[in-house]
Design brief:
The protein is an alpha/beta fold. The chain has five helices and eight strands. About 30% of the residues are buried.
Length: about 160
């Protein structure tokens, strides 16, 4: 059994999605996976998010504001859960709480790599502020979608 910060006991792990910036194709992969393995999946965003009708899927709309979805997830995630996020500070928090964090490109965050990724993120933000870096990451391609699906399947196989 898993329990979250609210002390809520759960028999199965849950999947949480930082849905504000999660690509639609990744959400579709997650919807199918949650149905297939019958695990609860919660999308959290500061805007309304549509989900297919399913007893395993739900969407939570949080207040508008910086990192509101991240805070919501971090307060409720339990050891053994999976969180889908591109937000490295949220990933670090999730990993510290004993859950798994996976970004939409299929990269799993671990205790070993999340600190390094935070440092790189901070350096890149500083370079952006100086005008040295422009733009964001490249568009999500087929290779990244496949990497995400494969990593999700690995996590699901270990949690059935």
């Amino acid at each position: 059994m898993n329990s979250n910060a609210d002390g809520e006991l759960r028999q199965h792990p849950s999947i949480w999605v930082d849905a504000d910036a999660c690509p639609g194709v990744i959400k579709d992969i997650l919807f199918r996976a949650a149905e297939r393995v019958r695990l609860p999946l919660t999308l959290v965003a500061n805007h309304a998010v549509k989900t297919p009708v399913s007893k395993y899927l739900r969407a939570v709309q949080v207040a508008r504001g910086f990192d509101e979805a991240d805070h919501y997830i971090a307060e409720r995630v339990a050891p053994g859960d999976l969180v889908i996020t591109a937000d490295i500070p949220l990933a670090a928090d999730v990993v510290a709480r004993g859950a798994t964090a996976l970004n939409p490109r299929g990269r799993r965050y671990t205790e070993a790599n999340v600190r390094e990724r935070l440092a790189i993120r901070d350096m890149n933000e500083e370079l952006r502020g100086m005008g040295e870096i422009r733009g964001g990451p490249p568009a999500l391609g087929k290779r990244e979608r496949q990497a995400f699906a494969a990593e999700l399947d690995r996590w699901l196989a270990g949690h059935r």
